[in-house]
Amino acid sequence: MDNRDKIKVYIKEISEIKGKSSSKIIKVLKLELLERCLKRIGQFLETCDECNIYFQEIDDIISKVNEYVEKSDKNTLKEYRYQMKGIVEHLKKKHGLIDEGHYVSQYMTIGMTIGVSIGITMDNIAIGISLGIAVGVAIGSSYDAKAKKEGRVI
Predict the structure, then answer these.
(1) Phi (first) and psi of residue 153, to 5 degrees
(2) Residues 143 and 125: beta-carbon distance below 8 Å
(3) Helix/strand/coil for 97
(4) ∠ CA(25), CA(31), CA(13), 5° rounding?
(5) Residue-wise pLDDT tens for the chain (154 aa)?
(6) Bridge partners of 98?
(7) First and final CA of the chain: distance in angstroms?
(8) What's the predicted TM-score (pTM) here?
């Protein structure tokens, strides 16, 4: 079985887990992120040795997901999150990918900071913060859309 077939099998397993799990468990386990990371790792398998190592760990990761769904064991969840963090960090650092909403969170913070300054000079901090957040979210959203269009989002 080649890697593309394995990816399809893993995605099918994740879909089955989603089908039998509550929305709370799906959110806690970030199964959508797991699926996206799996697809991204698959794209870099031929050019990245670390992605090959992470791809070999996917069996273990999916078994941890199944174990958590069945038993809700906190240690299993902790191990799973640690492994996922490693994959996500690798994809960010080595391949230049970003999380969804990355730029919105950055620019919203910057906008809020500038908004406080503007609000202080206007003697109305609330309006300054509101304007800063609105401008920050608008700018961040446009950068996030651009990154998604370029295929740089995990």
Answers:
(1) -100, 135
(2) no
(3) coil
(4) 100
(5) 678 888 888 889 888 888 888 888 888 888 899 999 998 998 888 888 998 888 888 878 888 888 787 777 788 888 888 999 999 999 999 999 998 899 999 999 999 999 999 999 988 899 999 999 999 999 999 999 999 999 899 8
(6) 153
(7) 26
(8) 0.79
